[in-house]
Fold:
Amino acid sequence: MITVNDSLPTSTLLEIKVGEVITDGKSQSGTVKSIEISETDEFLMFLFQLEDSHIIIKKLKQVC
Structure:
C-alpha cells in the first residue's frame, strides 16, 4: 500500500498505476480504478478514483 500526500515527489505520484492500493494516511484507502492528471500554471492535480471514493493531491510547480 502506497501512502499518497502532497509531500510525495511528483515522480512517485506519476508512477502509480491502476490496480495499485493507495491510502491518504487518514480515512481514504482503496484500489485505484482510474487516474486523472490536470495541470495549471501553478500546480499539478492528481485525482485517484478508488472503488467508492477518491483522493486528490495538488502539487505546486517549482518556479525558477
User: Anything to note?
Assistant: The longest strand covers residues 43-49. Residues 10-15 form the longest helix (6 residues). The chain has a mean pLDDT of 93. The CA atoms of residues 4 and 24 lie 5 Å apart.
